[in-house]
Amino acid sequence: MAGALRTADNVLEDSMDGISIIIPVYNEEISLPLLCAGLQELRRSLPCPLEILFVDDASSDTSLAFLRKKQCEEGFCTVYAHTQREGQAQALCTGIRHAVYSVIATLDADLEHEPAVIAAMYEVMRQGYDVVLGCRMNRQYKQWHERIYAWIGRASLRHLFGVQLIDPASPIRLCKKHILLSIPVRRGYHRLFTLFFHQDVRVTEYPVVLKRRQFGKSKYSIWKAAECVMSIGVFLVRDIHESRFFDRKSP
What is the pLDDT of residues 124-177, one digit of tens each? Predict the structure, then answer.
């Protein structure tokens, strides 16, 4: 049975105005110093408090040791660590459970997305939106299967569920915390969270320019792509009766 991001009922009451940025990490030891520098600049540029939460998903390199050291620097970040690989969806869940602010931002640790874009997306959210998705405008695919599975995923979300977004599975997003708290947690569901929105959730996209990965190896593979397609199938079979898909489609 699916878990959910919801914890105690008082989580919503305790949420404060500000942004909690959640960054899943797996073997990103080389990119982390530059990422932390970018996050420091982001903190200075925001008009609200910023909480930085790293969730290490059982890295086998020195990522966790580096983050623990940064945690000791007053006020910079908080680090949570999984003792075994649990996947990105569970890493995000861990971060959301501990986040203290009312807006959740998610960002990958590979430096393909500049942390500074969070500030621009937050300004868009302040115009009255509940969710702002980073739309990857210059996304490039290194392997043929990446392009095929990405097309299948977008087409499925658009034609099966009516999700009219350019990049619904973007890893960079801002979302009101109370919306995320009720989303089921299953492997791969971090790519499908737009399916759980109520009809009255106000969503927009913001163009994001991707940078070429400079360090480490991409975590995307044919198995990850297949997992995304399988997640859509699981949603259809197991969760459609409990999701908010029909609420969103109702007149």
Answer: 999 999 999 998 876 665 665 566 666 666 666 666 666 677 777 788 899 999
Q: How far apart are the first and last CA of the chain?
A: 30
β-pair partners for 184: 4
Pick the CATH number of 3-249 from 3.30.70.240, 3.30.70.260, 3.30.230.10, 3.90.550.10: 3.90.550.10
- Whether the Cβ atoms of residue 67 and residue 32 lie closer than 8 Å to each other: yes
Helix or strand holding residue 12 (H, E): helix 10-14
Helices (H), 172-221: 177-180
Output the CA–CA distances (angstroms, integers) from residue 125 to 12, 120, 128, 173, 197, in the order listed: 19, 9, 6, 11, 16
Edge-to-edge strand order for the sheet containing 16-25? 78-82, 50-57, 16-25, 101-106, 173-176, 131-136, 203-208
**Residues 204-233: tens digit of each pLDDT:** 999 998 776 665 555 555 555 556 556 656
- Phi, psi at residue 88, to the nearest 5°? -70, -40
